[in-house]
Amino acid sequence: MIAVTDPYSGLQFVELSHVWGHGAPSMPGDDDVIMYRSVKHAQHGVMAQRLKMVMHSGTHMNTPMHLVQRAAGAGDIPLDHFFGNGVILSIPKKRWELVTPDDLEKAQPEIREGDMVVIVTDWHHKYSDGLEYYGESPGLSKAAAEWLVNKKCKLVAVDMPQIDHPLATSLGPHRGGPLMNRLTAKYTDETGLDPKKEHPEWNIAHKTILAAGIPTIEQVGGDVDSMLGKRATFVATPWNWKHGDACPVRFTALIDPEGKNRIEPGNDN
How far apart are the C-alpha atoms of 199 and 207, rounded to whole Å? Predict the structure, then answer.
């Protein structure tokens, strides 16, 4: 496991975020991250950077406002949704497959009520500006999303580019789509299925989770492979942005080698 150990408590921190910056993969239909130095060390002895971006790039958090009108933005979500115990589940999936309630029921460790849940399908290994990564990814079924809501999860995170199957989003034949022109025909040619019949509802899994007030994190990465099948404490650090629909997030797992899931009391005694 790749971890940073706190010298005082012995607790270990594990990175669950992809490296972000210039050239970070961007969702088809979104502009690339544009970043430049407006002030340079060689010029003024100080550096300041400017950027223009869609917030849904790299490892990022989505708030209920993203898909639910008048719902909570980033700054409205209670802080306890960003810190707490949960599970990192290994649920390998191939292209265009769905994560189902049965997958969640059988996954180990068991998902407990109120957990933060990280679902790893192995798709983070394909993280790139590619047709395969965005257009052929797995996704959560509507029933799986309802299952997680019924478990009263505090947060749901996935290693896929989006919560839903890509054919249930605007990448396929839904609102404003297809944003990936070849995707619908490719899906039909290779599966023999009609995407409108197989995935009739737009972003239904994601909307189901967000409508329940549960924030989501997409594009989990980093050293998540070292944490598969484990319980951990999680720390997510979104922006305090009242009307934020989404924002980049640093996502970290906190491990206690003693196995007690202890958190130090923060006093000098």
Answer: 14
Query: For the segment 34-47, what is each residue's pLDDT rounded down to a tens digit?
Result: 999 999 999 999 99
Domains defined along the chain, listed by start: 4-17+58-164+203-255 (3.50.30.50)
Whether omega before 109 lies within 30 degrees of 0, making that bond cis, reads yes
Neighbours of 146 (CB within 10 A): 17
Contacts of 53 (CB under 8 A, 6+ apart): 31, 33, 34, 35
Q: What is the pTM of this model?
A: 0.94
Residue closest to 261 by CA, chosen among 124, 54, 116, 47: 116
Write out the two tokens for 150. 């019924």
Cα atoms in the 13 Å half-sphere on the side-chain side of 27: 24
The SS3 of residue 60 is strand
Q: Which ranges of the chain does DSSP label H, i.e. alpha helix? A: 41-44, 101-106, 131-135, 142-150, 183-191, 195-198, 204-211
